[in-house]
Amino acid sequence: MKKQNIVLLVAVILLAAFPLAMQDGAEFGGTDDQAKQAVAEVNPNYQPWFSNLWEPPSSEVESLLFALQAALGAGFIGYYFGYFRGKASKGELNAACKGNADTGIAQS
Amino acid sequence: MKTNQRNIILGILIFLYPATANAMHIMEGFLPKEHSIAWFIAALPFLIFGAMKIQNIIKDKPEYKMLLGLAAAFIFVLSALKIPSVSGSSSHATGVGLSAILFGPAVSSILSGIVLLFQALLLAHGGITTWGANVFSMGIAGAAAAWAIFRLCQALRLSTKIAVFAAASMGDLITYAVTAGQLALAFPDPVDGFIAAYLKFLGIFAVTQLPLAVCEGLLSVVVYNTLADYEKQGLIKLPFTLVRSDVQ
Prior knowledge:
The complex is a heterodimer of chains A (about 110) and B (about 250).
Chain A: H1 2-22, E1 29-30, H2 31-42, H3 59-103
Chain B: H1 2-14, H2 33-60, H3 65-78, E1 82-84, E2 89-92, H4 96-103, H5 105-122, H6 131-155, H7 160-186, H8 193-232, H9 244-247
Helix pairs in contact in B: 2-5, 2-6, 3-4, 3-5, 4-5, 4-6, 4-7, 5-6, 6-7, 7-8
C-alpha cells in the first residue's frame, strides 16, 4: 500500500512535469483566460457586468493566497492522519503502562 | 505509515510552486444576469439539502466530523494546485470526487461552495455572480457524476481503487464539460448556435483537463489507500462499508 502510494505520487509528478519539459516556450496560461477570448470571439459585444470585488494586487500576492489555500488543506490532511495515528499509539501506551502496573514493574 | 503520511504531504507540497495565470471556473461577470440567477436557483436545493446533511453528521455522527474536514481539506488543496498540461496551458483539479464518494454529492456542493467563495473573494478566481454556476458544475454535476460512477463500479464488482480512480477523474472531466455547456448556453455561436459554441468551449477545457483528471484520480486513490489502511487497523471508521472487499 505504501509502495503503491509512492508509485501513484510519482506518476502525478511525471504527469505535471512532462508538459513542462515537452512544450518549450508554452506560456501555460490559465484555461479561463482562453475562455474569455472565446467569449470575445463568439460575442464581441459582451461586456462583463460585474468585476471581482477585490483582486490580489500582484501575481506574487495571488500565488501567496493560492499557496495559503493549499497549505491550509494540506495542514489539515496531515493533522487528520497524524491525529488518529497518535490516538491509537497513545492507547497502546496506556495499555502497556497498565500492564506493567499490574505486574508490579512500574512500581520499582 | 508515518512515511506514507509524509509522502502525501510531500507530494502535495511539490505542486506549490508559484503558478502565474488563473485557471478554471467561470470568471466574474462572464455570465449574463439571467444566467447567473438561474444557476444560483438551480444550485439552491442541493445546497439546502447538503447543509441539512452536514448538520445531521455533526449532530448525530460526530465521529465523521474529522472526515468531513478531510474531504473539505482535499478540495482546498486540489483546487489550489494549478498544474501545467500538455496543451500548453494550466488548470486545476477539483477534489470533489472524494467527498462525493464519502458523503454524497449534496455534501460536496456545500464544501465546493465554501472553496469557491474563498477563491472568488480573495483570489479573483471565479466570481460572486458566477458562484451559483460554478457550484453547479463542480459541486453538483461533477460530484453527482463521481458518486454515480463510484456506485456503478461497485455494482460491477470492480476493485474499490479502480472505482475511486474512475469516479474522481470522471467527476473532474464532467465538471468542465458542464462549465463548457454553461458558457455555450450564455454565448451560443451567432451562426451555428449552441453546439458549435459548446465544442469550442469544450475544446479549450478538454485537452488541458484530461491529464489533470488523471492526476485527480491518482491523488484520490492515494488518500483512499491511506483511509482504507487506517480503517483496517481500526483507527478510523468510514461512512460506508464498501471498502472491505479489497482491504481484506
